[in-house]
Amino acid sequence: MDSARLKKGSGPTVRRMLLGSELRKYRDARGVSRADAGHHIRGSESKISRMELGRVGFKRRDVEDLLRFYGVTDASLINTMGKIAEDTNKPGWWQEYGEALPNWFQVYVGLEEAATRIRVYEAQFVPGLLQTECYARNVIKGGSVPPDPKAEDRLKVRLRRQQHLEDSGVKFWAILDEAAVRRPIGGKECMQEQLERLIELCDRQNITLQIVPFTAGAHAAEAGSFTILRYPEFKLSDIIYLEQLTGSLCLDKRSDIDAYTMAMERLSVIARPPAETKGILREMIEDL
């Protein structure tokens, strides 16, 4: 079993996806149908599907019974996967912030942490994973009347998500509308710090930044910002994440994935090349 993805601090979503992909591998190797596997653990075909996709927590007994049913005899391996099954039901680090994060966003944080590649198109703000503390604080508090008492906890979560991006080396490719980068947030000093931060991030091997200039006119993402989360290590389909004012959508139908992937590809063509991003950002600093 490849447990390299279970780094220190990995949350339950990562463990669910890893365990689900391993169970699918053993089931396929044995030639067992999902229906037969579900019947073996007093469940259903849909339960096995949800388990293999990492969408639910696991019972240790179910995992151990399935492994034996799939012909696994290594007691050490069965015990290891049984322990991981128990860990899938433990709360993620983000849950310690309680009501500061709505349930729908807690789901996203888990999916984001599990992703090995993240592609973002942002039309409104600098993406949260790239924001400075000053910029993020002003975005989070912006428009809150009266002030949001949970804003500081939300800020802590955002900064911790950024630390995961830095520590994990996840491939992050962001395409930003020029308006998103130029929108004044927090005053001149805050904006200069943010733009300088983006310039620094351009030198990270795991981060690619492009800017869609105003001169590009109408383009493929007229519907707004979106994120594509990819899981090639788990052999799972991509997830398209769309955030709304009071909730979010996570799309995984092939037609949706194809449409948003095509939109991202078109955006990458009309955006200025990554090699030009630092120069564009320096010009924006001069314009402050």
UniProtKB/TrEMBL annotation:
HTH cro/C1-type domain residues: 23-77
Molecular-function annotations in GO: DNA binding
InterPro entries attached to this UniProt entry: Cro/C1-type_HTH (IPR001387), DUF5753 (IPR043917), Lambda_DNA-bd_dom_sf (IPR010982)
SUPFAM superfamilies: lambda repressor-like DNA-binding domains (SSF47413)
Name of the protein: Helix-turn-helix protein
Species annotation: Haloactinospora alba
